[in-house]
Amino acid sequence: MSYIKSIGLLFLLALLAFQLPPARKTTIYLIGDSTIAQKIPQTFPETGWGMPFPTFFDSTIVVANHAKNGRSTRTFLAENRWQPIIEALQPGDYVFIQFGHNDEAENYPDRYTPVADYRKNLLKFVTEARRKQAFPVLITPVTRLKFVGGKQQETHVAYSAATMEVAKAQKVPLIDLDKMSRDLLQQFGEQNSKLLFLQLAPGEHPNYPYGRQDNTHFSELGARKMAQLVVSELKAQHSPLADHLARPLPKNAVPPTKGPDAQPTTP
């Protein structure tokens, strides 16, 4: 009996010795501005859509959120935020690129980037990612909340167009989050859409004792909805990443109405 046990133990050890190494995980790098970025507790419930984004994937996908508040393509490069990503990129990784909010801010010269330079910077991201055998994905800037006469307005005309031009010229996958988010807000309606943004009455949250009327940055609900739009487009485009979703996407639900009309805010 002990002989049989010994043989069985040796067989088990042999199997363990020849186990295949675990498959390498694929990393999705997110680069962009405050609409994607990780937030600190002091700004909660403000939430970037990059925060819930990892929850849509299984354990084979790692999401590295390098987006940063207030950054344009120009300042992201000037602050050397791109180089560490390039150095870390492995073949088969992804780089999701969404800028525009701060590039277009002419009244903020520390971040403003003319459209022509914006295109060049996007091209740099795409070219250098491909050089590392990674897969760039261009994303148009997510909309701001701005209803006029019951219709959600297009708030990033020139920079969304430039993003689409680079995607077409370079044959890069494009997620038109600008249009998708506008359509979502139109579906929710003017009042309900405010629940997707950082719209708080005075005293509603201790981080904002005087309230907040922010039509650019998202609530937890809004960030999750925007991440859901990105994931839904990966499925629609039959991206290989869609094979690594952790669970089916939930159906959209329109929440109840809230509060008076809000005024537009700066980025």
Walkthrough of the structure:
It comes from Hymenobacter aerilatus. Belongs to the 'GDSL' lipolytic enzyme family. Pfam families: Lipase_GDSL_2 (PF13472). 40% of the residues are buried. Helices cover 33% and strands 15% of the residues. By secondary structure, it is α/β, with parallel strands linked by helices. The protein contains 7 helices and 9 strands, in the order αββααβαβββαβαββα. The N and C termini lie far apart (75 Å). Helix 4 packs parallel to helix 5 (157-170). The strands form 3 sheets. Strands 2-1-3-4-7 form a 5-stranded parallel sheet, sandwiched between helices. A two-stranded antiparallel ribbon has the order 5-6. It has a two-stranded antiparallel sheet with strand order 8-9.
Considering the chains and any ligands shown, give keywords for the structure.
globular; 267 residues; two-stranded antiparallel ribbon; alpha/beta; Rossmann fold; 7 helices; disordered C terminus; 5-stranded parallel beta sheet
SSE topology sketch:
Blueprint: H1 2-17, E1 26-32, E2 61-65, H2 73-78, H3 83-88, E3 94-98, H4 115-131, E4 135-139, E5 147-148, E6 151-152, H5 157-170, E7 174-175, H6 177-188, E8 197-200, E9 212-218, H7 220-236
Parallel strand pairs: 1-2, 1-3, 3-4, 4-7
Antiparallel strand pairs: 5-6, 8-9
Helix pairs in contact: 4-5
Question: What is the 3D form?
Answer: globular
Report the average pLDDT across residues: 87
Query: What count of helical segments does DSSP give?
Result: 7
* Radius of gyration, CA atoms, in whole angstroms: 22 Å
What fold name stands as the CATH topology?
Answer: Rossmann fold
> Can you tell me the CATH superfamily?
SGNH hydrolase
The biggest beta sheet, please?
A: 5 strands, parallel
- Placed side by side, the strands forming the largest sheet appear as 2-1-3-4-7
| Unreliable runs | 253-267
Oligomer: single chain
Secondary-structure element sequence? HEEHHEHEEEHEHEEH
InterPro entries: RhgT-like, SGNH_hydro, SGNH_hydro_sf
Pfam families: Lipase_GDSL_2
Region (Disordered): 243-267
Keywords: Hydrolase
